[in-house]
Amino acid sequence: MFDMMGMMGKMKEVQAKMKEAQDNLQHITVTAESGAGLVKATVNGQRKLLKIEIDDSILNTNDRDMVNDLVVAAVNNAMLTAGERAAEEMKKSTEGLLPNIPGLDLGNFGL
Questions:
Q1: Which helix or strand (DSSP H or E) is residue 48 part of?
Q2: Subcellular localization, per the record (predicted)?
Q3: Helix or strand or coil: residue 91?
Q4: E-assigned strands of 1-111?
């Protein structure tokens, strides 16, 4: 027989685990670089930009477009990697709590 109360309890457990996992994403940090390390971007698992480091040697150049491109590339790389790490953490945090339902991806939940 279908156990509605048991299912509701399980959903509360899943919600609590998901909230805890989302809160823990702020502790994941990823740094990516572009231009052979001339620009570095650091983001957290919640995909918030934490820091940009730009080497002095390119700040003194007149090629603003190059600097802009390097910043964009570093930030995009860091965001992509942070998103992947966050998805892995969310998956680990919810492992075993829900049945394996094809197509159900909790990795991007709340991001």
A1: none
A2: Cytoplasm, Nucleoid
A3: helix
A4: 29-34, 39-44, 49-54
Greatest CA span in the chain, whole angstroms?
Answer: 73
pLDDT digits (tens, 9 = 90+) for 29-47: 999 999 999 999 999 999 9
pTM to 2 decimal places:
0.74
- 39, 70 contact by CB (below 8 A): yes
Give phi and psi for 50, each to the nearest 5: -100, -35
Q: Measured between alpha carbons, how far is 35 from 47 in angstroms, rounded to an integer?
A: 22
What is the band of 111 on the pLDDT scale with cuts at 50, 70, 90? very low
Sort residue 79 into left (φ over 0), alpha (ψ -120 to 50) or beta.
Answer: alpha
> What pLDDT shows up at residue 51?
98
Query: How far apart are alpha carbons 107 and 21 in whole angstroms?
Result: 11
Query: Mapping DSSP to helix (H, G, I), strand (E, B) and coil, where does residue 102 land?
Result: coil
Cβ contact 84:91 at 8 Å: no
* CATH class given for the domain over 26-94: alpha beta
pLDDT in tens, 71-92: 999 999 999 999 999 988 888 8
